[in-house]
Amino acid sequence: MNNSFQFNAIATIQSPYKEKFGIPRQPGLAKSLNSRIVFLPEYTRPEIVRGLEGCSHIWVLFIFSECIDKGWTPTVRPPRLGGNKRMGVFSTRSPFRPNPIGLSPVELISIESGNGKLELVISGADLLDGTPIVDIKPYLPYSDQIPEAVFELATEITTLDRDVFYSEQALQAIARSEEKFNQPVRQQINELLNCDPRPAYKKDDEEKIYGVRLYDMNIRFSISATDIRVLQIEQVD
Asked: Who's near 224: CB < 8 A, 6+ residues apart?
């Protein structure tokens, strides 16, 4: 039996997430943020996605390309558990795996083809810009959804659901970005920050100011027990 396999990427992701910090830890938590699956030249024939227009959601299989050189360990510290408890790597979704393959369900917004290009517009992805895609499959509600499924350590979605307040400078920067990208940037920032990108061990430090990259913006923010405050938005080249 052959125990070694080699795969080629079929596409890459164009995503507003320009660095790992700040990406939602699971798919579907920031649904207003769109990404694009851009097929590589050898996979741009429109018939390759024939029938996919009937799907509302798809599975995206990808490579944790930023983690390949860092290796893996048998146990990891999941952020959901505060970063203090070790779990077996196969009981987590850690990117540091023997085979660094990820799997995300996303909503399929549209299929765009023409001029030798083929792209899928998706929402709710949790993927770094430039992530290589190795496969795409349709999401089948009758078999992929398992209502009785249980995982005792992760029983519910954990988001903050807090009001987000903006400085005047931040509001002006958002207005420019919404015009530039034709996206609901303020809503997207609200969703992203309510996913709470802070490291688990710093969540009690309400004075700490963080920065997260989105599009060409560096968003400076703080999170307290009652609200989220966007203090400044810097343009990044």
From this structure: 206
Q: What are phi and psi of 222, to 5 degrees?
A: -135, 155
The backbone region for 34, taken as left when phi is positive above 0, alpha when psi lies in -120 to 50, beta otherwise, is beta
Domain spans in the chain, listed from the N-terminal domain onward: 11-144, 164-235
- Burial (CB < 10 A; 0-12, 13-18, 19+), residue 37, is buried
**Bridging pattern class, strands 227-235 and 163-166:** parallel
Token duo for residue 207: 């004075």
| CATH number for region 11-144 | 2.40.30.70
Quote the pTM value.
0.90
DSSP secondary-structure letter at 172?
Answer: H
CATH topology of domain 164-235: YaeB-like fold (3.30.2310)
pLDDT digits (tens, 9 = 90+) for 90-145: 998 889 999 999 999 999 999 999 999 999 999 999 999 999 999 999 999 999 99
Q: How far apart are the first and last CA of the chain?
A: 50
Helix (H) or strand (E) holding 13: strand 11-14
